Every structure is written in structure tokens, then in C-alpha cells.
Amino acid sequence: MDEAGEVDGGAVMRRIGWRVIPLLGLAYMVAFMDRSNISFAARTMNADLGFSATIYGIGGGVFFLSYALFEIPSNILLERVGARRWIARIMISWGLIAAAMMFVRTPWQFYSLRFLLGLAEAGFFPGVIFYLSLWFPRAARGRAISRFYISGPLTRVVMGVASVWLLALNGMGGLKGWQWLFLAEGLPAVAVGLVVLWLLPDTPARAPWLNAAEKRWLATRLAADGGSPVRHGSPLAALRLSAVLLLGMVGLLTTCAYYTFTLSEPQILALATGWSTQSVGYLVSAGGLAGAAGMLFTGWLSDRSGTRAPFMIGSTALVLLAYALFALGGGHTLGLIGYAIYVACWGSVTLSVWMLCTDLVAPADMAVATAMVNSMSQIGAFVGPIAWGVARDATGTYHTGFVGLVLVQALALGFVAAIVRHRKKGVAVAGSG
């Protein structure tokens, strides 16, 4: 007999998983698509509009500037108005802006719409991480986050195929292929936002598919993890937490490298392999499957072993190796080996950041702390693509950029080591609640 009643806890977790994670995963899939589909549009869009690598880099990066600036206010509002309404608002607004990218003609229009897209999407990802912490006890949270998070690499599967088809519509209806891409990949966010508004409960207490005993059982398990996230944290209080600062620095550096690579990924792969746009698209799709598998494995084994640090160290080091192989410029073979390592391991880097964040931060500080870590991460994603574009225009190659990615990832590995030492000393358990 459970103290909260006769409850099959495993069945409750499975039901929550099926009711919550697929919908949130679909939402993240369209979010990831709308922020990164310019990587597929770039080759033809830049040629049609006369955009240099620097212009493209600024447009790619400015999304993350507004995302970072409005991350914390967005998560505070999410706590106050409820996850269902706020996540739906985010999705509907970003979907409309993403589709409007088809009307871009000048650099400033490009910059403005990318800035607005980041503003609209701000708070979505950390909001979801906070939301999952309301439903899943710590012992099940790694698997829950990984099952949601695999939508990122799985989006690569969808984009790799769909973008090839959409770009092939070039000329249909008087529109360029890249215009069809923005339109067709932007509007689904609006539809998913409406479904979220209809189906997603704000909290377990409001879930009609949990009975009273099951709600009590879940509340008991969550309370055992350190209390209920009922108090609104202060952004400055969260920033003072050592765990938040260290995880934020790892996020800043690894996300800088990741989005710098991602926003030029099809072009990099085309140069490294000599393959056609269609073949590169299918390669990106295959990479998405490898990334999803790696992420699921990390979440499962991390929960099973009860540890996070080895996965963070190993995956960060392997991604560093992948960038180094690209920097060596060894051609087709080294490029494919580097790409295979990269897609299999990068998801485990960022997954480890979020698993540790939910482990080390008290529930009362969770919403603001996750927003703070993600804000710091997005600063890196803002700076990296711009520096990459400038280097590309100045040198005519990606070599200098890859040397920069190696240095950035090596610095990130240093901060990962600091987190491990910090936790071993027993001072990383953060929180003021």
C-alpha cells in the first residue's frame, strides 16, 4: 500500500509519458525546423538576394540574441499564466513569423524577421524543461527529457527530406523554392499551437486522465525530490547559483559551436563530400536518426546508472574530436567520419546539461534557472554564426572557422571538468527553496 493510495507508479509514469511527451516533442520539432531551416534555404536564397556569408551569419545569429534577451521574462510569464496558454502563444506567433520569411528581400528585412522569430520563440525550450519537472520525478527525468529532446535530431530527418522536395518547387506559383520552404515549414507551428491549447494540462492537478490517488502519488514523489516549485524565483538569485553559472558557460560554448555548424551544415557537407543537394539532404536525415539514438541511449543509461557526469565528459570530448577532423580538411573520408561522430554525440552534450540542471537546481528556482542557462547558451549561438560568416568572407574557406570551433569546444570541456569537480565537493546542489 502506497502512502498516497494503491497506485501503480510505473503505469502512471507511462501514461504521463504518452500524454505529454509526444505533443511537446512535436512542438519542439517544428520549433527546431523554423529556427534552422535557413541552412537549407541558404544556397539559393543567398544567391537570389545577393547575401554575403556575413549577412547570412548576422541573420542566422540575431535570432539567438532576441531569444536570449526575452528568455527569462517569458518563463516568468509561463509560470503566471500557465504552460498550456503560454506555450500555445509562443507557437502560434513564431509560426506566423517563420512563414513570413518567404517575403524577405533585403538584409534588414532578413535581420528583422529573424529577430522577431527569436523573440516569439523565447522561453519555449526552458519552459518545456520546467514543465517536465512538474510531471517526472528525478529518477525518471533523464528518460523523459531525452524522449522529448530527440525531436531535435529527428527534425533533421524531416528537414533533410522535406527541404529537398520543397526547394524543387522552385518557380511553382511564381515563388522560389526557398519561399515554399519557409511557408510550408512555418505554418505547422500554428496548427500545433492550437492543439497544445486544447490538450495540454497546466499541471498534474489539472490532468483529467489522472485520478485523485494518482495525483497524490505523483505529488509525494515530486516532494521527495526537494519540494514543489511554487515560489517565483529571482533572475539574480538564480544567476548567483554556482551550478547555473557553470552549466550556462558550458551551454554558451557548446551551443555557439553547434549552431555555427548547423546553420552552414548543408554547405559544409556539400564541400566536404562533393555530393549534390539531394544527397546531402539524405545524409542530414541519416544523421538525425543517429543523433536520436545516441540521445535516447544517454537518457536511459544515465537514469539507470544514476550518474550524469561521464556522459557529459565523453560526449563533449567526442564532439571536439569531430570538429578537429573537419579542421584538418582531409576531404571526403575525414569529413564523413567527423560528421558521424558529431551527429551521434552532440545531442548527449546538451541533454547532459539539462539533466544536470534539473538535478542540481531546487524546484522553486527551476523555471528561472533553466531560462538563465538557456539565455547564456543563446548568447553563444548569436556570436558564433556572425564570426563564422566574417571568417568565411575574409578567407574564402571554412578552415579558420573550424579552428575556432575546436578552441570553443576545448574551452567547454574545461568547464565540464569544473562542473564535475564542483559536484564532487558536494557544493553543486543549488537552490534557495
Structural class: mainly alpha
Helix content: over 70%
How is the CATH topology named? Answer: Growth Hormone, Chain: A
- Unreliable runs, pLDDT <50, ≥5 residues? 1-5, 227-233, 427-433
Number of domains as seen in the coordinates: 1
Looking at CATH, the homologous superfamily is: MFS general substrate transporter like domains
The CATH first-level class comes to Mainly Alpha
Q: Note the gap between the termini.
A: 30 Å
Q: Count of DSSP E strands?
A: 0
Given the structure, what is the number of helices?
20
User: Average pLDDT value?
Assistant: 84
Largest sheet: none
Order of helices and strands: HHHHHHHHHHHHHHHHHHHH
The shape is: globular
Radius of gyration: 21 Å
- Strand portion, in percent? under 5%
CATH architecture heading:
Up-down Bundle
Structure summarized in a few sentences:
The chain has 433 residues and is mainly alpha-helical.
Write the layout of secondary structure elements.
Blueprint: H1 9-36, H2 38-49, H3 53-69, H4 71-81, H5 83-100, H6 107-121, H7 124-133, H8 138-149, H9 151-167, H10 177-186, H11 188-199, H12 212-224, H13 235-239, H14 242-262, H15 265-273, H16 277-305, H17 309-328, H18 332-360, H19 366-395, H20 399-424
